[in-house]
Amino acid sequence: MTMDSHDLILLRELQRNGRATNVELAEKAHLSESSCQRRVRQLEAAGAIERYAAVVSQQAVFVTITLESQSEAALKAFEREIAAIPEVMECYLMTGSADYLVRVVARDVDDLERIHSTRLTRLVGVSRVTSSISMRQVVRRADLPVR
After folding, report:
1. The Cα angle at residue 25 between residues 23 and 28, in degrees rounded to 5
2. 103: which residues sit within 8 A by CB, 6+ positions away?
3. Could you tell me which of 13, 34, 51, 73 has the fewest CB atoms within 10 Å of its CB?
């Protein structure tokens, strides 16, 4: 999809406030309300806007996981299992010393211990799990730098 300056304004505004009304969006993008609504629907249909969500406050816990093997079968088996853990919010295959970086949510330290001992360390092929708890959030952006 080719986007013009109006589409980019709409994307920036919706990232900042997904609950913005069509009237507010039309005003920001200098469009009529009907044209604005049509453009937003086109952005959604084209996949430029995947979904709308509320951002819930949470404590960040980052976990690095190293596998015993990096074979394709081992990676696929691990990824299938990690995706089934509801406390896992994000999981990335990484370069460097650890194979995966995982962001999990936990109510408290006891809950983190439960997740660590009953879920993460029991995943197939895991050789090492290291957890880090954030002390303070310095930067958190939900909006991509749309230009």
Report:
1. 110
2. 60, 61, 62, 63, 88, 89, 90, 91
3. 51
The Cα–Cα gap between 26 and 18 comes to 14
Tokens for 94, please give them. Answer: 């990484």
Closest to 106 measured CA to CA, from 61, 64, 62, 137: 61
> Each residue of 84-133: pLDDT tens digit?
999 999 999 999 999 999 999 988 889 999 999 999 999 999 999 999 98
Across the chain, mean pLDDT equals 92
Starting from the edge strand earliest in sequence, which strands make up the sheet with 61-67, in order? 88-93, 100-104, 61-67, 126-133
Q: CA-CA distance, 24 to 130, in Å (whole number)?
A: 46
- Per the DSSP assignment, residues forming a β-bridge with 24 are none
User: Which two tokens mark 1?
Assistant: 């999809």
**What is the reported pLDDT for 93?**
98
Write down the H helix ranges in the chain: 5-16, 22-29, 33-45, 72-82, 109-118
Distance between CA atoms of residues 33 and 28, nearest Å: 11
